[in-house]
Write a structure and sequence with these properties.
The structure holds three protein chains of three kinds. Chain A is α/β, with parallel strands linked by helices. Chain A is built from 15 helices and 23 strands. A five-stranded parallel β-sheet of chain A has the order 3-2-1-7-20. A five-stranded parallel β-sheet of chain A has the order 9-16-10-11-12. The longest helix of chain A is centred in the last third of the chain and has 20 residues. The relative contact order of chain A is 0.15. The two termini of chain B are 30 Å apart. In chain B, helix 1 runs parallel beside helix 5. The relative contact order of chain B is 0.20. In chain B, strand 9 and strand 10 form a beta hairpin. By secondary structure, chain B is an alpha+beta fold. Chain B is globular, with a radius of gyration of 20 Å. Chain B contains nine helices and 18 strands. Chain C is mainly beta. Chain C has two helices and eight strands, in the order H-E-E-H-E-E-E-E-E-E. In chain C, the strands form two sheets. Chain C has a five-stranded mixed β-sheet, covered by helices on one side. In chain C, strands 4-3-8 form a three-stranded mixed β-sheet, with no helix packed on it. Chain C starts with a helix and ends in a 7-residue tail after the last strand. The chains are: A alpha/beta, B alpha+beta, C mainly beta. At the A-C interface, strand 9 and helix 3 of A face helix 1, helix 2, strand 4 and strand 6 of C. Strand 23 of chain A pairs antiparallel with strand 16 of chain B.
Chain lengths: 472, 371, 100
């Protein structure tokens, strides 16, 4: 049995893998706790082994990096320095002030009915992100999926959502999603990007500082062109049509102030709409541990430490910036955690390259964010009868009434007065839309349970957790 | 909630009312409450009298505001698992009946009619048809709107204005002064701080409670159901964690399980022992809950005073200052009666209940002026 | 071209499951959602308010729109749960717990 301090890494995407490999290589016993059956996260999502895919890389990008991560994982698994707990869905991480350790509480198995607790001396949160989608009439119709969802189903299940897709929204994810769909045999009727060429040009210097990234984008664009995919920059989806499933979408051109250009609306027949407006970080576990957030992301220092001792964070959870940034942050975090667990400081030289990459990629992410911000005026255009909270079926009109006349001015009060955000997803899907409608800033919610937990699991929690109840 | 009720009943006597709150509507304990309107957990005494008066007023408001506040006169069911607890419960109920509570003994064989999914092998229980429920945040928002009061939300009170003779004539906020001949302290758990701004002592302290909220379910829990131990917990002076959960279904679907009682200051961080105890207690009452999922949990801070009674009425130490706070876990239920008593005090009418037990200055042994 | 050809997949033997009583073939390793998509099914839940159809939305277990009843157990996320031979998959109505 390996010895040394124990680090629990939550999440096996690029950040979590890079962190786990860096820490394991530096004498730390690492437990990688992850929800998926296979490592890779969303970016390197793998088809199930039973599907027998000989060339999964046909749906992937930066495959060589993945091969390196996978080989590293295999080596550390073989030595026993690293344990990979798959299908472990973490719902809470709690510090035990008495022993100075952490309990990582997870639900095991696809049904998530069995509780299990992993103990560690330190925790590294690499919980990734999820997609932001701004609503429009018809967005709840079957056939409307998130852009990342279409990609995940394709990479993981080797299935397509339909025959004819429109890819729409805003952000750097749309190009690879459209390319993936078209390569796998779908017809992509249009790629609808709300950012116009002018918005991209304004950020040109910052974007051009990343020639590799631009070349990547150009490569996708060329493939789409070859497949005859029409791209509509400066356009937005106005509505999705259909009775029990998607049949068509209406798109229109955006004017400079975010208004729709009169006469520009056109209808496109499709059975699939893959839509997204960027990503949001998963911050629930960090927030419950008491880590300070800044905006919607976990705040970290140069070593990727949160302000809670013993807790590190890396990747999209600390600010959305893509897989390459996540790898750099994960490596830095893993090196720091290993050094600190051994009672020393990390040697800056060992992760100097990663630190340089992190700086460069964060600048690029900031420029992308600015270029792909949601189209102005989207909230005002939303009709009152459009469902905004998909779980509780709360409409835009109900959210507006919670604001006026009932007086709500923040996400929590809108939730209390309208139920928007009270359902199964706990507001993850609707919070951006509610914030837009209420005219308040989008802030990370407080979710002590990062996922739904059976009451039987709560009732069966180990006694030792945090000792007896504290009293004043 | 208490502030909203004070605003409503004061406005209805013809007073010009302004409401100042540093946070949003229902931003404090109200937003973390379950909306219990209970008479069942109170023994004979001033709190029960206030609860009975409040229950009548809530029913009248429900006629007026309709479904907008999700008022449900669902009734409470208190159950005992052992014969000894049942005897104690029946004795307690007999005393309550003497004070005007409808408390109907239910034999073990009849419990399934009232609650089909209740754990078998209970010794018996008592049914309280006067127990009811509202959705507290909606109730506060709707009452405020019905009051027509001018709202200053997001404005923090930084001082209470007192004339040379000590008379209160308004409040200072971070956005300017508001002058008024009467100031009502309905700051709930923070009522002690507001009293201190006026130079008087009111020992309101927080008692933390966690609530669990499940996935949406069909109506599988029909009443407010709790074990007979709950009453002992409410009255307890212990600082340590006490849990005997109240389990109830809601109009919107989720089952609410609340709440723990702990004195730990204003610490909002998740307590796994607290949610473990709540979950275990709820499963003990309703075994089907074992496989039902909790979607969220949240903490609130009940404002309690040492004798577990609220402070309601004028403060003789600071003429012009009135208090309506310190209702502990019963603030939603007692809000209407409190608002009515306060309105009567503001307009010099004879109060409907004896105000003596609720006197704000009752904790003073040395005059209480802290200036 | 389809995704299986593109990745030169050689899946194990297909298994039979039922969806609302109708037999479907599913590939081993696929999620319930992927198997339903492959069979052309895009909706398997009706909401408890307006009774509207829903299926996959986020595809990664965050949005809970794809809740489905599998082998009598409601509220399973179809995008996460792997399909197993003989699974009885049913459209989930409302809360999935016999709403009246």
């Amino acid at each position: 049995m390996a010895e040394g301090p124990r680090l629990a890494v939550v999440g096996a995407g690029p950040a979590g893998l890079a962190a786990a490999l860096a820490a394991a290589a530096r004498g730390v016993r690492v437990t990688l706790v992850a929800a998926a059956e296979q490592a890779g996260g969303q970016f390197y999502r793998q088809p199930a082994a039973a599907l027998g895919a000989a060339r999964p890389q046909a749906l992937h990008h930066q495959w060589r990096t993945w091969e390196r991560l996978r080989a590293g994982l295999g080596r550390h698994l073989a030595t026993g320095r690293l344990t990979h707990l798959t299908d472990h869905h973490v719902w809470c991480v709690a510090a035990d002030p008495v022993s100075g350790t952490f309990g990582v509480h997870a639900l095991r198995g696809p049904a998530q009915e069995e509780g299990v607790t992993v103990r560690a001396d330190a925790v590294l949160l690499a919980t990734g992100g999820y997609e932001r989608v701004l609503p429009f009439p018809g967005w709840t119709l079957p056939g409307v999926v998130t852009a990342g969802g279409a990609q995940a189903m394709l990479k993981g299940g080797l299935v397509l959502p339909g025959r004819t897709a429109v890819v729409a929204g805003s952000g750097p994810l749309l190009l690879p999603v459209a390319t993936g769909l078209v390569t796998a045999g779908a017809r992509v009727a249009a790629l609808v990007e709300s950012a116009g060429p002018a918005a991209l040009l304004r950020r040109a210097p910052a974007l051009a500082a990343q020639p590799g990234k631009l070349a990547e984008g150009a490569g996708y664009a060329a493939r789409l062109l070859r497949h005859g995919v029409r791209t509509l920059p400066g356009h937005t989806v106005v509505a999705a049509h259909g009775t029990d499933r998607l049949e068509a979408v209406t798109v229109a051109a955006l004017g400079r102030e975010g208004h729709l250009r009169p006469g520009s609306a056109r209808r496109i027949r499709c059975d699939t709409l893959a839509v997204g407006h960027g990503m949001l970080p998963h911050t629930d576990l960090a927030e419950t541990l008491g880590c300070t957030l800044s905006g919607t992301a976990v705040r970290v220092d140069d070593e990727q430490r949160t302000d809670v001792p013993g807790v590190w964070a890396a990747g999209e959870a600390t600010g959305v910036g893509g897989a390459e940034l996540a790898l750099a942050e994960g490596h830095i975090a893993g090196c720091s955690a290993a050094a600190r667990l051994h009672g020393s400081a990390p040697a800056p030289r060992r992760s100097a390259a990663a630190a340089r990459a992190r700086r460069r990629l964060r600048e690029f992410a900031t420029a992308l964010d600015a270029a792909f911000e949601p189209p102005a005026g989207w909230a005002g255009r939303l009709p009152d009868d459009t469902v905004v909270c998909r779980c509780e079926e709360v409409t835009a009109g109900e959210v507006r009434r919670a604001v006026d006349p009932l007086g709500a001015g923040d996400l929590r009060t809108v939730k209390l007065l309208s139920r928007a955000g009270m359902g199964w997803c706990q507001g993850r899907m609707c919070a951006p839309a509610v914030a837009g409608l209420a005219g308040c800033p989008l802030t990370a919610g407080r979710r002590p349970f990062a996922r739904p937990v059976p009451l039987g699991v709560l009732a069966g929690l180990p006694d030792t957790e945090a000792g007896p109840p504290d009293a004043d | 909630m208490v502030g909203a009720a004070c605003a409503l009943y004061a406005a209805r006597t013809g007073l010009d009312v302004r409401v100042v709150d540093r946070g949003p509507v229902a931003g404090g304990t109200t937003g973390a409450g379950e909306g219990n309107l209970l008479v069942s957990d109170k023994g004979p005494g001033p709190e029960l009298d206030l609860a009975l008066m409040s229950a009548r007023l809530w029913a009248a408001l429900a006629d007026e505001l309709g479904t907008a506040i999700e008022y449900e006169p669902k009734g409470g069911l208190v159950v005992a698992s052992a014969p000894a607890a049942l005897t104690a419960l029946r004795d307690f109920a007999a005393g309550q009946r003497g004070a005007g509570v409808t408390a109907v003994p239910v034999g073990a064989d009849r419990l399934p009619e009232l609650e089909p999914h209740l754990a078998p092998a209970m010794a018996g229980g008592v049914h309280y048809p006067q127990d009811a429920q509202v959705m507290p945040a909606l109730a506060a928002a709707r009452l405020l709107r019905a009051s027509g009061a001018r709202m200053h939300v997001g404005h923090t009170v930084t001082g209470v204005l007192r004339a040379a003779g000590g008379t209160v004539y308004g409040v200072r906020t971070d956005r300017g002064d508001i002058h008024a001949p009467a100031v009502v302290n309905a700051a709930g758990t923070w009522g002690g701080d507001l009293a201190a701004l006026a130079g008087v002592r009111l020992p309101v302290l927080p008692r933390r409670g966690f609530v669990l909220v499940t996935e949406p379910l069909p109506r599988m829990v029909r009443h407010k159901v709790y074990a007979a131990d709950y009453v002992a917990d409410v009255a307890s002076d212990s600082a340590a964690l006490r849990t005997s959960p109240v389990v109830e279904g809601t109009a919107a679907g989720p089952v609410l399980i609340g709440a723990t009682r702990e004195r730990v200051g204003f610490d909002r961080s998740l307590s796994l022992p607290a949610v473990r105890a709540l979950a275990a207690g709820a499963i003990g009452l309703f075994p089907f809950l074992e496989r039902v999922r909790a979607l969220r949990t949240y903490a609130g801070f009940r404002p309690y005073l040492p004798d577990h009674l609220p402070a309601i009425g004028p403060d003789p130490r600071a003429p012009g200052l009135f208090h309506a706070c310190g209702h502990e876990g019963a603030g939603i239920g007692l809000a209407t009666g409190t608002g009515q008593l306060l309105a009567q005090a503001l307009t010099g009418k004879t109060p409907e209940l004896d105000p003596a037990p609720f006197r704000p200055e009752r904790f003073d042994t040395d005059g209480g002026d802290v200036r | 071209m389809n995704p299986l050809e593109l990745t030169r997949a050689r899946p194990g033997a297909a298994r039979t499951v039922t969806f609302d009583g109708r037999p479907l073939t599913a590939l081993p390793g696929q999620s319930v959602a992927a198997a339903l998509w492959a069979a052309g099914v895009t909706a398997w839940r009706s909401t408890r308010g307006a009774g509207r159809p829903r299926g996959v939305f986020c595809g990664i277990g965050v949005c809970f729109d794809c809740l489905v009843t599998v082998n009598g157990v409601p509220n399973q996320r179809a995008c996460l749960v792997p399909v197993r031979p003989g699974d009885v998959i049913r459209t989930q109505e409302g809360t999935g717990r016999d709403d009246g």
